[in-house]
């Protein structure tokens, strides 16, 4: 490519980001934003199985119980209300990143530290706290308490 | 001295392509160059205006001098690269060397004449590109007339810097290229390593982009980083900052002073560096110039030619095979436009990744879609600039196309196939990246994508039409690629205008039909199709006009 073309494209590259970043936060003509009212946790998906979530007495808090297996991974399922919310994306936050991580698609995976705790037999169960937060700027949250039950030492299925 | 003047004028006429005997042609040419300078200056002015409007570089509604240092660094960097490769071709491998060395002149004079011609060429490029950017700064900042005079003189001197650095670097580059041309495996390994490095760099850069990024909330941090970069250019790269002072003047409170130690001392040091560089190159190459030049001549080649059995292909396959061989032999030409095609999807990925990180509303998303469409179009159309010399590059051999025992449209179309295929592949990969970001309805993205592809293919036919209409075969036969091709300028100007109109129209359509993009997508598809049909008909019309006669038409 010629020198002036590279120069002009570079200027346009920078300007397009600046213009979008600054003007892009403005509302469009006739646009109304429907903000998220509530995030409702529905179930945990482990392979082809589903474990339903129960709503607790504490506001926006849900719970489920799951049996621990080696290399266990499961998905957090949820509903964003109302259905016509403009921004339906949800951000997942792990309560303890040393123990477990949640991907941006809601897949929970355990760390090696947690696997050691789980498999050394010192605990029978542990409760993990996950938070689901809306990304529309209002930060509506749902809290998911997942109780993991460990089998007796030596009975881990691999 | 007379001999040198004659040599310079002879090459100058060929390279700059100024028909100075024809006053009307000269006037048109000057007007066109002036228009180019005004367009570049206008874009630079808009850039300064927007940066000031959003207080990007300074809270005091101005463009700091260090911003101009960054621009100057960028210009010098690209100039050194283009001068190095251009001078390597012009000094050692250009076809006119075969004629020039037969003149009763010393090699020094040929060498000097080539450097002088290149310097004039660089000067012309600077007056139509670099100087307008700085003049726009002067107009925007409201500088006095002293600045314009100073900038003009400064650029005359500054133009010699990349030329002389390029001349120095072209010596080792010449031997490196010769070595790589002999050992293809190393050459291809290096190309692959470069592509790998490019991908790695792009991935590192993309991973550096935060997942969520609100430009307004994060503005204090961004502004601090911008100031750190500006300070780096002002204090760490101070020679370049002083060069900027030499061109513009020294900022003192709210105005600029023109009599200062930094500016004039830099001017003196620059002159000194230029003299030293010139002496090193002149005395370094003096004895060996003719020998180096003749290394590229046909008789100096020691390659053994392996005999191959003649294989009979069908008519169409023959032309395709011939094009494939032509392309695989034109290393520099093909690698430059292939590298552009590889970079485009990476740039689009980087752009969409930045857009997806920005915290924006619906209007922002729409702006980001439109800007992505604009970048796909502008970058692919710019990468296809080689289409404007596709027939002329054959030089005087192009006449053979008229003698081929088939309709001329087939060999001519075969020349375009590589551009069409590569452009479609790059457009599709860029559109896939765009779709992953925008998540539009499949029908909508297919129609918009087809519209973009039709427009790109249409512009390929338009570039080929320009080459047919205003052929530059003589220029390529004499100078290789080392001259200003007017078709390239026309193609770039039209491509930018078409891309910007298409982008602006897609903005209007998407904005008007928010929520129902299918109507907008159909209209954009139809525009692309229309451009394709118009350009294709122009191309066919000119092929018929230049290649068909009544007997060929019946074949």
Brief rundown of the structure:
The complex is a heterodimer of chains A (158) and B (555). With 158 residues, chain A is α+β, with helices and mostly antiparallel strands.
Describe what this molecule looks like in 3D.
The complex is a heterodimer of chains A (158) and B (555). Chain A is of the alpha+beta class and 158 residues long. Chain A has helices spanning 3-23, 112-119, and strands at residues 38-46, 49-52, 54-55, 61-67, 73-81, 90-94, 100-102, 107-110, 125-134, 141-149. In chain A, the strands form two sheets. Chain A has a five-stranded antiparallel β-sheet. In chain A, strands 3-4-10-9-6 form a five-stranded mixed β-sheet, with no helix packed on it. The model of chain A has no long low-confidence stretch (mean pLDDT 83). Chain A is elongated, with a radius of gyration of 22 Å. Helix content of chain A is 18%, strand content 39%. Helix content of chain B is 77%, strand content 1%. A two-stranded antiparallel ribbon of chain B has the order 1-2. Mean pLDDT of chain B is 83; it is low at 550-555. Classes of the chains: A alpha+beta (158), B mainly alpha (555).
């Amino acid at each position: 490519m010629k020198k002036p073309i590279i120069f002009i494209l570079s200027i346009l590259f920078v300007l397009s980001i600046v213009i979008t970043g600054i003007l892009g936060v403005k509302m469009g003509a006739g646009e109304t934003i429907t903000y998220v009212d509530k995030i409702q946790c529905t179930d945990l998906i482990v392979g082809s199985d589903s474990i339903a979530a129960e709503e607790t007495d504490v506001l926006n808090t849900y719970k489920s119980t799951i049996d621990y297996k080696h290399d266990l991974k499961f998905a957090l399922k949820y509903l964003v209300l109302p259905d016509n919310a403009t921004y339906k994306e949800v951000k997942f936050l792990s309560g303890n990143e040393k123990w477990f991580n949640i991907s941006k698609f809601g897949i929970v995976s355990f760390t090696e530290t947690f696997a050691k705790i789980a498999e050394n037999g010192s605990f029978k169960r542990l409760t993990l706290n996950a938070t689901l937060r809306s990304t529309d700027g209002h930060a509506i949250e749902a809290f998911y308490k997942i109780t993991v039950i460990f089998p007796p030492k030596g009975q881990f299925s691999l | 001295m007379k001999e040198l003047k004659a040599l310079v004028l002879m090459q100058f006429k060929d390279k700059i392509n100024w028909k100075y005997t024809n006053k009307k042609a000269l006037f048109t040419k000057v007007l066109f160059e002036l228009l180019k300078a005004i367009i570049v200056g206008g874009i630079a002015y808009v850039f300064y205006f927007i940066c000031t409007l959003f207080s990007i570089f300074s809270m005091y509604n101005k463009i700091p001098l260090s911003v101009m240092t960054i621009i100057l660094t960028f210009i010098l960097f690209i100039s050194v690269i283009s001068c190095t490769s251009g001078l390597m071709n012009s000094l050692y491998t250009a076809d006119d060397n075969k004629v020039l060395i037969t003149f009763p002149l010393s090699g020094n004079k040929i060498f000097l004449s080539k450097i002088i011609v290149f310097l004039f060429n660089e000067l012309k490029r600077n007056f139509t590109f670099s100087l307008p950017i700085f003049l726009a700064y002067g107009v925007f900042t409201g500088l006095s007339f002293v600045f314009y005079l100073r900038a003009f003189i400064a650029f005359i001197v500054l133009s010699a810097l990349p030329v002389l650095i390029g001349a120095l670097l072209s010596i080792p580059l010449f031997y490196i290229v010769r070595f790589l041309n002999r050992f293809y495996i190393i050459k291809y390994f290096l190309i692959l390593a470069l592509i790998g490095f490019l991908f790695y760099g792009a991935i590192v850069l993309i991973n550096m982009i935060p997942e969520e990024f609100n430009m307004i909330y994060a503005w204090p941090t961004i502004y601090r980083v911008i100031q750190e970069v500006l300070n780096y250019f002002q204090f760490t790269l101070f020679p370049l900052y002083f060069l900027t002072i030499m061109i513009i003047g020294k900022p003192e409170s709210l105005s600029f002073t023109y009599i200062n130690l930094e500016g004039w001392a830099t001017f003196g040091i620059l002159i000194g560096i230029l003299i030293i560089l010139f002496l090193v190159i002149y005395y370094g190459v003096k004895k060996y110039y003719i020998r180096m030049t003749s290394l590229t001549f046909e008789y100096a080649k020691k390659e053994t030619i392996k005999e191959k059995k003649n294989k009979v292909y069908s008519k169409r396959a023959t032309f395709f095979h011939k094009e494939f061989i032509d392309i695989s032999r034109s290393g520099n030409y093909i690698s430059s436009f292939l590298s552009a095609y590889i970079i485009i999807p990476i740039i689009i990925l980087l752009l969409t990744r930045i857009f997806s990180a920005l915290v924006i509303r619906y209007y922002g998303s729409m702006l980001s879609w439109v800007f992505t469409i604009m970048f796909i179009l502008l970058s692919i159309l710019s990468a296809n600039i080689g289409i404007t010399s596709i027939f002329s590059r054959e030089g005087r051999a192009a006449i053979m196309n008229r003698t081929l025992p088939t309709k001329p449209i087939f060999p001519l179309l075969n020349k375009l196939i590589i551009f069409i295929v590569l452009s479609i592949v790059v457009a599709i990969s860029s559109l896939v990246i765009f779709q992953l970001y925008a998540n539009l309805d499949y029908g909508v993205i297919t129609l918009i994508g087809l519209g973009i592809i039709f427009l790109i293919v249409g512009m390929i036919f338009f570039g080929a039409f320009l080459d047919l209409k205003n052929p530059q075969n003589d220029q390529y036969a004499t100078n290789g690629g080392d001259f200003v091709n007017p078709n390239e300028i026309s193609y770039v100007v039209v491509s930018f205008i078409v891309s910007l109109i298409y982008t602006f129209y897609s903005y209007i359509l998407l904005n008007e039909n928010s929520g129902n993009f299918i109507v907008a997508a159909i209209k954009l598809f139809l525009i692309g199709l229309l451009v394709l049909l118009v350009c294709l008909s122009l191309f066919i019309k000119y092929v018929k006009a230049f290649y068909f006669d009544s007997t060929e038409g019946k074949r």
